[in-house]
Design a protein that fits this description.
The strands form four sheets. This protein has a seven-stranded mixed β-sheet with strand order 6-7-8-5-11-14-15, with helices on one face. By secondary structure, the chain is of the alpha/beta class. α2 packs across α3 (109-125) and α5 packs parallel to α6 (287-296). The protein has helices at 3-20, 91-97, 109-125, 179-182, 220-238, 287-296, 309-313, 339-352, and strands at 25-27, 33-35, 39-43, 77-81, 102-107, 131-135, 139-144, 149-155, 161-165, 168-172, 187-190, 207-210, 213-215, 245-249, 303-306. β14 (245-249), α6 and β15 (303-306) form a beta-alpha-beta unit. The longest helix has 19 residues, at 220-238. It is 27% helix and 20% strand. It is globular, with a radius of gyration of 20 Å. The chain has eight helices and 15 strands.
Length: 353
């Protein structure tokens, strides 16, 4: 995608973000508009927000320091919006604000990644608080008992259902049976994309069904669009957005191709220790982002686009690479602490504003 096309695409996306998420456009005292998603990463010696070695809740996939990451510069970057400041995360304030509330992340392992970050952020603020851990797969829940705040994650790769039938595992693009477990939360943060392009042994289904039609496979982007549309219809029909705040996370980027940062010979994020220079407004977006945006435009209920895509694209340095419990190359997920902490700072600002 050429420079001009990238700039035009970003302008279109910025207009769409404003349309979908008016509460994120904060009026500044100088009369300007604050878009929390447009800005750049700046080095800040006061970061990170917590010492991840003191957080007892990090899964091995995301615990980069425990599994051998030596460089720590990736922890020192703070997100700086172009026309305003992002308030530093305050765990006690968060828990007080949401006293008695239930917050749920719904999606794949990227949702789990963000949930882990939020748990660590809160734990670092109230390390002596009583935390009740419950559940397993697909639901894990941490309740900060002193504040009666429940932070949970529901693991689902596609949002729509996969059911085992006589012919095998069927991905049902027009069915969401778990919705009754989600819709009564106070805050819902949805995410899906990571599994839509999976093929071969990692593909968790054998057939795709839409209505009465069953096929062996189909265009994956169209399948993604159909599944998202089913989710959008579910929100419109089942969720009372006057009581439940609904956000949909933008596409979380991967860094397996050095052309993203002008190093075409680089094939992964293994040796990356600093962000891509510049502003989030100059990067192209993955095609799935435009599919997500087009579906969200048709939701009649209040749904906010939690658009972390462009700002995360700058963070080629934020992935575990081989510094994880499996020692495999991971340029998909994110170190905790790290980039997901910023997601949660933005999430908090998005909800309270």
């Amino acid at each position: 995608m050429g420079f001009e096309m990238r700039v035009c695409a970003w302008i279109a996306m910025t207009i769409l973000v404003i349309y979908l998420s008016p509460c994120l456009c904060l009026e500044e005292t100088n009369g300007g508009i604050c878009n929390l998603y447009e800005g750049s990463w700046v080095y800040d010696k006061t970061y990170p927000l917590y010492d991840s070695s003191t957080c007892p809740h990090i899964r091995g996939e995301y615990d980069c320091l425990k599994y051998g990451r030596v460089d720590k510069e990736y922890l020192k970057y703070r997100w700086q919006p172009s026309n305003c400041n992002l308030t530093r995360f305050d765990g006690k304030s968060f828990l007080t604000k949401f006293k008695g509330k239930q917050i749920m992340f719904v999606g794949d392992s990227v949702s789990l990644n963000q949930w882990q970050s939020l748990i660590c952020l809160l734990h670092s603020s109230v390390p002596q608080a009583t935390v009740i851990q419950q559940g397993g797969d697909p639901i894990k829940n941490y309740t900060f008992q002193d504040y009666e705040v429940s932070i949970s994650v529901f693991h689902t790769t596609y949002l729509v259902d996969i059911e085992v039938e006589k012919i095998g595992r069927v991905l049902k693009l027009d069915s969401i049976k778990n919705g009754n477990l989600w819709k009564n939360m106070d805050v819902l943060v949805f995410n899906t994309w990571l599994w839509w392009y999976r093929r071969g042994p990692k593909q968790p289904w054998d057939y795709i069904q839409i209505g009465d039609k069953i096929v062996k496979d189909m265009d994956r982007m169209e399948a993604f669009r159909t599944g998202l549309t089913t989710w959008a219809n579910w929100v419109d029909n089942e969720v009372d957005t006057n009581k439940t705040k609904v956000l949909f996370q933008g596409i979380s980027p991967m860094h397996y191709n050095g052309t993203q940062w002008q190093e075409p010979g680089v094939t992964n994020c293994a040796k990356e220790t600093t962000p891509i220079n510049g502003s989030s407004s100059l990067l192209g977006l993955p095609p799935a982002s435009y599919v997500l945006q087009s579906v969200l435009q048709n939701v009649t209920k209040s749904v906010q686009l939690f658009n972390i895509t462009a700002l995360s694209e700058l963070r080629k340095d934020g992935h575990p690479s081989s510094h994880n419990i499996f020692h495999g190359m991971d340029c998909t997920h994110w170190c905790v602490g790290g980039v997901p902490d910023t997601w949660n700072e933005i999430l908090y600002a998005s909800i309270v504003n």
